[in-house]
Each structure stands twice: as structure tokens, then as C-alpha cells.
Design brief:
Blueprint: E1 5-9, E2 15-20, E3 26-33, H1 47-55, H2 64-73, E4 77-82, E5 87-94, H3 98-110, H4 116-129, H5 135-147, H6 161-166, H7 169-179, E6 185-191, H8 195-205, E7 226-230, E8 235-243, H9 249-263, H10 269-276, E9 284-291, E10 294-304, H11 308-325, H12 328-344, H13 349-362, H14 369-377, H15 381-393, E11 397-402, H16 410-417
Parallel strand pairs: 2-6, 7-11
Antiparallel strand pairs: 1-2, 3-5, 3-6, 4-5, 8-10, 8-11, 9-10
Amino acid sequence: MQTQIQTTRLPNGITVVTDQALHFQAAAISMKFAVGSAHEPEELSGISHLLEHLIFRGSDQLNGNAFQQAIGAVGANINGQTNEDTTTYTASALNEDLGPTLKVFADVLCNPKLDEEDIKLEKQIVEQENCRGCASCTMRDSLYAVAYPDQPLRHPVVGYEDTIESITRDDLLAYHAQHYVTGNLIVSVVSAAEHEDVVAHVKDAFANLPNGPRSAMPIFEFTPGEIGISSGGDRAAIQIHYDLSGLTEDQRRCLDFYSEILGGHGFSKLMEELREKRGLVYSAWTFEDEIGANRFMNVSVWCDSRKITEVTDLIGKCMYDLAHNLTEQDLNEAKRRCRTGILQFLDNLTLRADMNAADELYGVTVRDPFKRVATYLDISLEYLRNVSQELLKQEPAIFLGGSQRSMPSFDRVRAALKGETAPEKPKRGRLFSLVN
């Protein structure tokens, strides 16, 4: 299967990306605005996400019911998602309905109604979506607060109860006028249509979108901080966070492999050491993220609170040993999984459209999936080892949560990641002793 990715930047600033899929009946659309929670003033935390919800309440011409009926009339499926640096609206329909689907969706994106009653209702719905500080979100927010202090990345995408409640219709109108502009929009389409036809559809559909520049891509300054949160429960959490922003694309590709071999699948090294051999965890995983100009790698593990020191020691040992003892077999298996993962995108048109939009936003140079696979297949074992070892020389940000009595020192965790042993600290004296 060949891909034909073409890009046109319209005179008004809208970027159109097409990827021709000749043998599919469906068309997929990703409309990505370069704005998210990282662009928000602190007092309006959550406004990007609230606005995304309200888009589906319709426009001045089409109220919410009329909008849903118009989308239903062409048999399309639609969705929205807000992240730290983007707000994305997706639609899938048949090729023959590409133009009408774009036209209907563009109307609500350009001219949202933002009715006072709708705002009130959506605030209630967003409140139901708010996890109110579940364990996973507490870990995320706490870690980012020390790793990126006094920067908007530390705020949850959904905002806070008080900030959401304080947002007014005027706030929403002003935020929409500032960020829902031509320069901020990337429209990515995967369909059988010719590039020129898609460009014409986008021009027509978004003719009323106000002109404006692209929002600045957020840049975050990383601090290798650490935070421990004591809890009385029987569960403990560990997250180790590396900022990869200063690395080249080739180095990042290497760390894609290191991360994937370490914890990116069910038979990863962490799962083998922590679960299969010792039964200490149910799952252990790594994940990577890209927000604005920053790229991250995280290691996350949950375990019995009484076992957290043993688990953190093993995580450090596993990460260090893997970086120094990666084998050709490890690399070749990772390359096969990588090829499968990248090429599977070709069969999922919605993910394919969104990936093409993200590549355009983040300036990814290798766009064709077959060429992207080739860049990974060219990575050598020696280069992978070198880059992985350099990673572990950096100081990460660390989150530990669980019983204070069982929690290891951060010095011990950092030493384990470098293949070292931290000096033992004096034991605390016992509060009580037995008397014969």
C-alpha cells in the first residue's frame, strides 16, 4: 500500500494535509487547533476543555439538536479531545460525504452558540468528568508540579472546580476569538479524494473562520525534582520521568526502542523481572508523550506499599542492566513490533489522519510510514546502547507514593538508576523496647 501525503498552507493560514487512501470507502478528518491547557491563564484553567464540550452544543445557525441531526444525516461519527497543547475534533464518514461533513462541523467551530444554559449544563458535565484527584491524577499533577514548577503543565487539562465555575460566557467568547483562528488550524484528511478537492472543501467550509496567527508552541523548563506522598493505603506508586527535549530525532528514536523493550508491552523487561519472576506487581509500563516543544519518557509502576523499596531497587537495576546489556535479539524483536505498530496506522483512518496532523504541528520530518519504519530499522545496537546509557546519566523527576515507613530514600532510587548503591543512613532509634 502506497501513501501520498500532501500539504498546502492556504493564504489565510489554514494548513491542509491529505493522505490518499484509494481502496477505502471511508474518509477520516482531524481538525486540530494548536491550543490546549498549557495556553490557559491560571485563573481560567480548564477553559480549553470546556470550550471543546460547548462546540458540540451547536452554532447560531444550528442548535445542538440540529447539529447532531445534520451530522446524522450524512452518517458521520464525531468526537473531540483536549490535551495540554491541542484541541482536536475528529469525524469519519463515507468519501462521498466528506464535503458536507466538513461544512457542518466547520459551522460550529467557526460560530459556536455558547448559550448561557448550555454553559451551565456543560459545567455540570465537566464536573462529572473531573476525577477530583484520583491516585493516577494526583501522581501526574504532583510530579509535574515539581518537574515543571510554576508552569501551566502542572494544571490538569479539565481544570479545577473553582476555575471552571468562574468561567463566563465572555471568557469563552474571548478565548475562542483568540485561538480558533486560521493560523491555528490544521485540517488533516485521509480519503480517496484528490488533494485539490480536499483543499477546495476546506476553503469553502472554513471561509468564516477569523484570520489570526498560530499560538506559540509551549516550552517547559524541566527540573529533576522529587516528591513523596504518604498515604495510609496498601498501594504504592512509582513514576520516574525523563525530559528528552534536548535530544535529536535519531536519539529519540533510540529511546523509543529502549522504552518499548523496558516496559512497552506485556512481555517487557520490567514485567519479566517484577511480575513473572517475583509476582510483585500486576503491571509495569513505560510511556512517552510530546507536549509542545517537550518530549517525555515515563516509567510507572504500582505495587504493594510494603514492597516499594524492593520494587524501586529492581526498577533501577532493570533499567541500568538493559541499557548496558541490550542484545541483538532485543533490538530485532523491537524492530518487528515497531514495524507492526507504525503500519497498523494505515488501516485505522482516524488515527492516521490525527497522526498526520500531529506530524505537521510538531514539525516531524519523516512523514511517510514506510520511510519512518526504515529510520527505525537503521538503528544499530551500539548506538542504542550509547543513547540509553546517556539517558541514565541524567537526573529524572521522581514520584513516590505510599506508606512513609516503607518508602525508600530518593538518593537510593537515583543511585539504583546509575548502577550504584546509595550510602546507608543511620537507622532511627526504636520508640519502644522489650523489658525482661
